[in-house]
Amino acid sequence: MAHASRRVRTETFLCVLIALAMLGRGDARAVSAKPREATLAPKHGDARQTPEFDLLIRNGHVIDPRNGVDAVLDVAVAGGKIASVAASIAPSRARNAVDASGLYVTPGLIDMHAHLFWGSEADAAYSNGYSAVQPDDHSFRSGQTTMIDAGGSGWRNFPQFKEQVIDRSKTRVLAFLNIVGSGMKGGPVEQNLADMDAKLTAMRVRQYRDVIVGIKVAHYAGPEWDPVMRAVAAGTEATVPVMVDFGGHTPPLSLEDLLLKYLRPGDILTHAYADVSGRVPIVDESGKVRPYVLEARKRGIVFDAGHGGGSFVFTQAVPATKQGFYPDVISTDLHIGSMNSGMKDMLNTMSKFLNLGMPLRDVIKANTSKAAEVVKRPDLGHLSVGAEADIAVLDLRRGTFGFIDVSGAKMLGDQKLECELTVKAGQVVWDLNGISRPLWTDVTASATGR
Predict the structure, then answer these.
(1) Is the peptide bond before 159 cis (omega within 30 degrees of 0)?
(2) What's the pLDDT tens digit per position in 318-341?
(3) 12, 137, 248, 371 — which has fewest CB within 10 A?
(4) Which DSSP string do the residues of 259-276 spell out, in sequence order?
(5) Phi-psi category of 285—alpha, beta or left, where left has phi over 0 and alpha has psi -120 to 50?
(6) Single pTM value for the model
C-alpha cells in the first residue's frame, strides 16, 4: 500500500509539473502574441484602457487668434466639446488620435456671406429659388462649420427658410434677414419700398435671435436712402449689425455718405474690392485707397471681401492690399454663379489674400474669431476649453497656382490652402485623405461588421 501511495504521489507530482510547463508555454505565447486591439493603427489610441477623449488631433500647428495661440500643440475633444489644448497629450488617452504633423489646426471656419435659401420656386432667385445652394454641399470640404445666409429671406418667409434649410443642415446655418419682407427674389420684389418694414424685421430677429444675426440691404436701384435707413433702424432696435451690398443706384449714391453718415460702427460693407456700376470703388484713379474709406475703418465700419461672381477684381484688391487695406472678414458670396467661376470656394478665396500678402494668422482670424465677433456670436470661432468642437485641419500647399477674379484676370501665387479634415461638434465630417481612419489591413473583422 505504501508503494502504491508513493507511486500515486509521484504521478500526481509529475502531472503538476507537466501542467505548469504547459501553462508556462501558453503564457509565453500569450505575451508574444499581438493583442487584438493593436490591429488598429497606433494613432487610434490604446483600446486596453477607457479613454477620456473621443478625438485627439496631434502635432498640428494650432492657430487660434482669439486665445492668442500660434504654436504646435495637441487638441483633445470629448463629448463634442474642446477638452484640452496642450503639448504632448498621450495618444493612449483618446479613442482616436489623428497625426496632423505639418498641418494647421484652426477653429472651424465661418463664411459670413453665402446664399443658402435654395428651393424650386420660379423667379425667386436667392429666396427659395434656383440661384442659392445647399450648405452641406460646400461647407465641410472647405473647413467651414458655420455659414451665414446673406439676406435670402425676409421677415415674411424666414420661417420657411428655417424649416427648409437651417433645421435640415448638418452645417450650422445662421442668417442676415433681408430688409425686404419677401427676401432676395430679384427684380421688382426688391424695389418695393412698401415691403421694407423696420418694425416687423426687428420683431422677427427677436423671435429667432439664436439664428438671425443681422439685417441685409441689397440690390435696390432707386435714388432713396430708405432701404439703408430702415435696415439701420431695425438693426438698432434688435441690436444686430447691418450688411450692405452697395451699388447700382440711379443716380449713384455716395459711398462716403454711406460709410460716414448712415452706417454705425460694427455695420458691414460687403464686396469691398468690387468695381461695379453705380458705386465708387474704394481705390481711386491714382491707385490710392480713398481717405474716407480709411476714416470709416477707424470709426468701426467692417469691410467684408464678399467675392461672389461680380464683386472682386485685382485692379482694386492689389493696390488696396499693397497699402495694407486687408479685409476684416473674408467671405465667399457663394451661389450658383460664383462657385464654378473665379471664386470657387472659401479656401480659394482665402488663398488669394494669402498671396496678396495678408499674414496667415490674419487670414484665419478673418474667418474665425473676427467673423464671430462681427455677428456677436462669442460661442463660435475659437478653440477654448468647453467650446463646441468645430475644427478645421488645413494644409498650406506650396507650388505655382493661378487665381482668377470676376473679370477673368489671373494672378499667380505660390501658396494655396486645402482642407484635410473638418470636425463639427466633435464629429469628423470631412476627411480628404483618411487621416482619421485606420488602414484597412489594421481593421479587425468585428470592426467591419463581418
Answers:
(1) no
(2) 999 999 999 999 999 999 999 999
(3) 12
(4) IIIIPPTT-EE--TT---
(5) alpha
(6) 0.89
